[in-house]
Amino acid sequence: GAVVSQHPSWVICKSGTSVKIECRSLDFQATTMFWYRQFPKQSLMLMATSNEGSKATYEQGVEKDKFLINHASLTLSTLTVTSAHPEDSSFYICSAQEVWDTDTQYFGPGTRLTVL
Amino acid sequence: GQQVMQIPQYQHVQEGEDFTTYCNSSTTLSNIQWYKQRPGGHPVFLIQLVKSGEVKKQKRLTFQFGEAKKNSSLHITATQTTDVGTYFCAGRNYGGSQGNLIFGKGTKLSVKP
Questions:
Q1: Residue pair B45/B33 in contact by the 8 Å Cβ criterion
Q2: pLDDT in tens, B56-104
């Protein structure tokens, strides 16, 4: 149980385009989802916390107008990288918390974004 | 700004030996979390510690949170090849509605059979 999926698993796009990444909790309801990015051989960096039905909370230094987060349902959160540039190339990972178990996070498999 | 330092960066052990990774924060934390990431995989949440001096065990893994809530450790007893991976700590500081979650750089564990 507690499976989180991400789509797409990888994407290549041209500079200036926008890319949407989906994060879904497949067999549970998640009131809270988290978005992380991870550069090669580096640690995770929490970007934002997404709460269903409300605005996301962004960590310091993360541009909310560039990384748009929508958490429209209890099973889906989306991250849109707007006007992507090569420096946005990274591994984006989401995680989700069950409604009844806020002590545990379940991670998605990640999305590799490459911006040319 | 707040920093979370994790040591060692790498650890190579013989199967059956013990392993410990340490996490130190420059500021007092409200809680600390530990994650494991297998090579080529995505992170798996292991545990969250909240209370000062807290000790929690998961089979061969022992997690500690310091009395001052500025450091933490993860100890693995009698390592196995399945323990291979990178172990990250992440500390959440006080402040705001959530407090920033800052990750350490991780300790990469390799286990020789």
A1: yes
A2: 999 999 999 999 999 999 999 999 999 999 999 988 876 544 456 778 8
Chain B residues whose CB is inside 8 A of the A43 CB are: 88, 103-106
**What whole-number distance in Å separates Cα of residue B17 and Cα of residue A88?**
40
- CA-to-CA distance for A22 and B31, rounded, in angstroms? 28
* Residue A103 with chain B: CB contacts under 8 Å: 48
Contact of A82 with A16, CB cutoff 8 Å: no
Chain B interface disruption, residue of A34, A43, A104, most B CBs within 10 A = A43
Q: Is A8 on the interface with B (CB under 8 A)?
A: no
Residues 6+ apart with CB under 8 A from A106: A2, A3, A4, A25, A28, A95, A96, A97, A98, B45
Tell how far CA B75 is from the center of its chain: 9
Say what the pLDDT of residue B96 is. Answer: 43
Tell me which residue of B11, B10, B20 sits closest to B76, measured CA to CA.
Answer: B20
Amino acid at B43: P
A112 forms beta bridges with: A10, A91
